[in-house]
Every structure is written in C-alpha cells, then in structure tokens.
Amino acid sequence: MIRTLNVIALVVAVALAAALYIAKTEAKSAQERLETIQAQLAEERRQINVLNVEIAHLEEPERLRQLARQYLGFEPLDPAREITMTDLPLLVDRREEDEALRGDMVLAGQASEELPAQARRAGGPR
Predict the structure, then answer these.
(1) Which of 20, 34, 71, 102 keeps 20 to 30 A from 79, CA to CA?
(2) pLDDT by residue (tens digit) across 71-82?
(3) Is 115 exposed, middle or buried (0-12, 13-18, 19+ CB in 10 A)?
(4) Could you give the C-alpha distances from 38 to 34, 42, 49, 60, 102, in angstroms and in order?
(5) Beta-carbon contacts of residue 108 (< 8 Å; ≥ 6 apart)
C-alpha cells in the first residue's frame, strides 16, 4: 500500500513539474511577444508624431501663400477691391417665379380677393 502511494505521489510530482515547465515556457514566450508588440507600438507612435509634424509643415499658411504666388499667380487681395453686400446687384431667378405659378397662372401666395374674376369662375380658390 505504501509503495502504491509512493508511486502515485511520484507520478503527481512529475506531472506537476511538467505542467510548471510548460507554464513557464509559455509565460516567457508571451512576455517576448508582449515586448515585441510594445516595441512596434512605440515605433508606430513615433511615425505618427513625424507625420503630424510633416502635416503641420505642409499646412503652414506662409508656405501655402508662397506656393500660391509661385505656381498659381495668386496675390493678396487689395483692400480697395473689396465691396460691401449692398454694392452687389440683386438678381431674381425667373425659374423661382415660374415654379410659384399654379395651373391657372395665379401666384400661389396671392390672396383670393386679388384673384381676377375669371380665375374664380374657373374653379380657383374662394
């Protein structure tokens, strides 16, 4: 009986040692993967910072102004050329007026007392 108990204890001890070894090697490989991923993350963040600095340089107003002058011939607006809203002509789109007309050629917003007698006889609004 003691011999059987010793054999069972030895088997359990060997199984536990094997499980501990497997857990230790898996933990070590997981730690290595984690370090690799953290290094990649740090590199990506560094690249993002470099790109943000590059974007800030490319969007610099003075640089864009210089490129617009050089390649497009743009110059700053002369303040004497500016006009106010009241100086602009009032334009009326004829299509809007045409859409406002009903089938009996009366404006949709026109009151019924303003309607000609002919439109009232033809079944217009009363």
Answers:
(1) 71
(2) 999 888 888 888
(3) middle
(4) 6, 6, 17, 33, 71
(5) 100, 101, 102
